[in-house]
Specification:
three-stranded antiparallel beta sheet; 40% helix; Alpha-Beta Plaits
Length: 73
């Protein structure tokens, strides 16, 4: 497995995981429990991992994904 990204932004990580999984790429988030235990102060970012064979495609998927704005009503 290779690290695709690391972040403390839970919304971004959730979006990235959902986007990759929708593209058929399995993901694993490391350090989420350690980060939560330390109070999510940013000292330990979560790492999003993908299989080494999927790394290039996963990077492309995230770089080309279109974020749709929410339409409130």
């Amino acid at each position: 497995m290779l690290e695709l990204l690391r972040s403390n932004d839970l919304v971004y990580l959730s979006w990235a995981c959902a986007t990759l999984e929708a593209a058929g790429i399995q993901v694993l988030v490391l350090d989420q429990h350690t980060s939560a235990i330390e109070g999510s102060i940013g000292a330990i970012p979560r790492r999003l991992m993908v299989a080494s064979d999927d790394w290039s495609r996963a990077r492309w998927v995230l770089e080309t994904a279109v974020v749709e704005p929410e339409h409130g009503g």
